Amino acid sequence: MFFFGGGFQFGSNEQFKPQATYLASRGMVAARADYRVKSRHGVEPDACVEDAKSAVRWMRQNAAKLGIDPNRIVAAGSSSGGYLAVATACPGLDAEGEDARISSKPNALVLYNPYLPSAAEEPHWKIVPRSHLTKDTPPALIMFGTKDELLKRAEVYVAKSKAVGHRAEMFLAEGVGHGFFNRPPWSEKTTQRMDEFLVSIGYLQRKADR
To answer: Among 31, 54, 87, 188, whose CB has the most other CB atoms within 10 angstroms?
Structure first.
């Protein structure tokens, strides 16, 4: 399930259409979630997290109907959408009336230049993902351009991940900035890296050598 970026202000679930189409061609069920944003719905990021958690929970609840494995749900997203993806794996901010018996925690994460707030610098955030990191946090692939100002936060996240025995892999694109994956050649390279990660955790079969 992909969550678009846009600073919690705007954006469209058209963003990840190429990646979703690719995964569908590889036999996965790919979804592009919509969620409330400030420009259209007048909401703050907490509501965005509620919607993201509800979306993952809906996928798991409807697994049989969708023909998916409820224990192999991947949350993915870019920038603010990357934050939403990783926040679904953390406690808190469940929408009112949700069935708490159904987990909103995904089984793996694919994060494109995610926004990862710091508790020290931004104490107003109700979910700070690195504060909830344990060895049981879903394995993650994190992809960044080396010129992205958000990269340093991700490096702290990965360092803590290693310290607690959690699996987080970093893919770096040299010399490019935020949103690099939306353009060639990085759109293809990040999709290939995502494929390799999903193969490594057993969610995809390795492509046959040609």
So the answer is: 87
Cβ-based neighbour number of residue 127 at 10 Å: 20
- In the chain, the amino acid numbered 16 is F
Residue 27: CB atoms within 10 Å: 9
Residue 209's pLDDT band (cuts 50, 70, 90): low
Domain of 154, in residue numbers: 2-200
Q: Quick one: three-class SS letters along the chain?
A: CEECCCCCCCCCCCCCHHHHHHHHHCCCCCCEECCCCHHHHCCCHHHHHHHHHHHHHHHHHCHHHHCCCCCCCEEEEECHHHHHHHHCCCCCCCCCCCCCCCCCCCCEEEEECCCCCCCCCCCCCCCCHHHHCCCCCCCEEEEEECCCCCHHHHHHHHHHHHHHCCCEEEEEECCCCCCHHHCCCHHHHHHHHHHHHHHHCCCCCCCCCC
* Domain total in the chain: 1
β-partners of residue 171 are 143
CATH code (residue 186)? 3.40.50.1820
Q: Say if 37 falls within a structural domain.
A: yes
Give CA–CA dist 152/156, Å, rounded: 6
